[in-house]
Amino acid sequence: MNGSPMRVFSAALATETNTFAPMPTGLSSFHERAYFPAGTHPDRMQMHSGPLWAARLAGPARGWTLIEGLVAAAVPNGVVTRAAFEELRDALLADLRAALPVDMVLLGMHGAMVADGYDDCEGDLLKRVRAIAGPDAVIGGTLDPHTHLSTAMVENADLLICWKEYPHTDILERAVELVDFCAAMAEKRLRLRASVVDTGMVAMLHTTREPARGFVDRVSALEGRDGIASVSVVHGFPYGDTPDMGTKILVYSDAATDADGARGTALAQRLAAELVDLRESLGEPMPGIDEALDMATETNGTVVLADRSDNPGGGAPGDSTFLLRRVLERRISGVCLGPLWDSGAVRIAFDAGVGARLPLRIGGKIAPLSGDPVDGNWEVRALLRDMVMTGLAGTPAKLGDCALIACDDVEVVITSYRCQAFGVDLFTQLGCDPAQRRLVIVKSSQHFRAAFAPIAERIILVDTPGVVTNDFTKLPFRKIKLPKWPFPDA
Asked: If 0-12 CB within 10 Å is exposed, 13-18 middle and 19+ buried, where does residue 28 land?
């Protein structure tokens, strides 16, 4: 730096790709969720712009010059089109070139983006960033733990930090860590060595329950001791058919005390072995639809049912009707469900207006795993343009135009944008209080818990048909490395 102010570049490019999902991810998907060209990021942190936001917070006191590049993120979906990825990637890289010279590059990424022709989008991006920024620039990034951690990603970044919590409530905390460590490296106060160990399995760690809660707490307690700077538990994303899919441990140790990386590698191996020992107990029981409804109706108080297989947060369409159909067939009352993606039905509801009663066909539009559309005589109870739900860590989650419709004391929030359930304001903004409902059905796998657990007497994950199937081992994988638990013969 030679005493000159630090020049910091920050940008984001992120989505999670379900390679088995029926719809491609094009540019429109990024524009719907978060698309901010260089210098236009709003005065509110977005889900994947944590590094930029943390740099905004830290930079003024440290005298940094912060150059903000493109921030683009899409709701998880199918394979990203080649045109979309290359256009967004090249725009970000052009922003970086315009910012040169830079001392630091801070990137918000997901880590499980797959595009047509690119199995490892983040690895490709980081290689190009390194080539432009040069060997002396410090490159760091945050990742969703459901990432495909590749050699190219680790080799071309000085530091990668995964969010630890699932639900991802620690987005800003991990970004602040990243900025502090990268600043120390840029100021030559710190050098880090990376150690990666593959567990030979793929498993989700729900930090709202044991034993994952205790494991992540033990991991966190190791940081800042004995030369260990950062430990990330890479869950992996089991719906991405790429060679790097799987659960891994990523450790960064201080090179001053761990010159050959032996200490970091030993720790990664120990944590990987511990996680393998826990693997059979990491899952959660998932009853079928009728069993789940039986359990729910026999419980006093509000029961939250998670339609996890149709979770847009895992790439599913979010329009399946299997649960809704059985609720109506069984005449269960006191129910609210959402968000159900059906932009056509939303338009009809807006045309009809609040108070209208009309025959409406909802859901079941995209693929066989969406089920058949549900027909009914629905009352339009509320309408809201450009609705925004409270997302993880307080970040905004766009739902587009939304309608609350009701049939036989079953209320459904239909949306024009795909998104999973994050906040209770998904319902309350439209005048529905889920805390007063008997059953609350959400399109989500885990992230709903942060907001819905406080109102729930009981939470039940339901094994429904869908793209984000509970038994992912039956999906037609071609590229993943086997053996890998829980796949057969692992």
From this structure: exposed
DSSP 8-state symbol, 454 = G
What are the DSSP E strand ranges found in 18-75?
34-36, 65-73
User: Which residues make beta-bridge pairs with 350?
Assistant: none
- The distance in angstroms from the start CA to the end CA of the chain is 50
Instruction: Calculate the average pLDDT of the chain.
Output: 97
In sequence order, the 6+-apart residues with CB closer than 8 A to the CB of 220 are: 164, 231
- Given a contact cutoff of 8 angstroms between Cβ atoms, the answer to whether 249 and 200 are in contact is no
Phi-psi region of 380 (alpha: psi -120 to 50; beta: other; left: phi over 0): beta
pTM for this prediction:
0.96
Confidence of residue 1 (pLDDT cuts 50, 70, 90): very low
Residue 188 has pLDDT above 80, yes or no: yes
Whether residue 303 contacts residue 458, with contact meaning beta carbons closer than 8 Å, is answered with yes
Tell me the C-alpha to C-alpha distance, in Å, between residue 73 and each of 34, 99, 113, 174, 260: 5, 21, 10, 18, 37
Q: Is the peptide bond before 488 cis (omega within 30 degrees of 0)?
A: no
Strand partners, 440: 304, 336
Q: How many residues in the chain?
A: 490
**Helix ranges, 105-227 (H):** 121-133, 151-156, 171-186, 212-222
Q: What is the pLDDT of residues 393-402, one digit of tens each?
A: 999 999 999 9
DSSP string covering 267-320, please?
HHHHHHHHHHHHGGGS------HHHHHHHHHTSSS-EEEE-GGG-GGGT--S--
- Non-local (6+) Cβ contacts of 431 within 8 A are 381, 382, 404
Per-residue pLDDT at 294 exceeds 90: yes
- Half-sphere exposure of residue 250: CA atoms within 13 angstroms, side-chain side: 29
The model's confidence at residue 328, banded by pLDDT at 50, 70 and 90, is very high
d(CA 190, CA 60) in angstroms, rounded, equals 22
What 8-state DSSP symbol labels residue 166?
S
Say if CB 423 and CB 436 are below 8 A apart: no
Closest C-alpha to 13, from 83, 79, 91? 91
Q: Determine the distance from the C-alpha atom of residue 105 to the mean position of all C-alpha atoms in its chain, rounded to a whole number.
A: 22
